[in-house]
Amino acid sequence: MISRVLVPMDESEMAERALRYAFDAHPNAEITVVHVVGEPSSMMGGATEIALADDPETAAREHAGDLFDRAEEIAAEHDVAIETRVTIGHPARAVINMSDEFDVVVIGSHSGSLADRLLVGNIAEKIVRGSAVPVTVVR
């Protein structure tokens, strides 16, 4: 029986689809939405800004605020409460590292733009390969 579901989310439509699927497929499970803020690099100014903040955890949670608000709206449509988490790191690695706390991971197949599809599709594939639990990829 599946009682704990992890749903990694970004701002994409696919991530929202994954969350809706998690509610539909696992109506009695506890749903945790996680947003991973990428590792700082010269190409990811927002992640670098968060990592250099006086309180990176608070800065990361503020960065994820709109995303979590949207996840809460979707949860309210299903009359369910969710838990939210934010972490800093490589998205695939972070999800894989926390996967053993859950019974299943439900993830969107990719994001919107071509660059995002290449990157996030690759992330989804890495999560499928490395997760400690089954992974459902939603299209």
TrEMBL record:
Domain UspA: 1-139
InterPro entries: Rossmann-like_a/b/a_fold, Universal_stress_UspA, UspA
Annotated Gene3D superfamilies: HUPs (3.40.50.620)
Segments passing through the bilayer: none
Family affiliation: Belongs to the universal stress protein A family.
Protein name: UspA domain protein
Species of provenance: Halorubrum aidingense JCM 13560
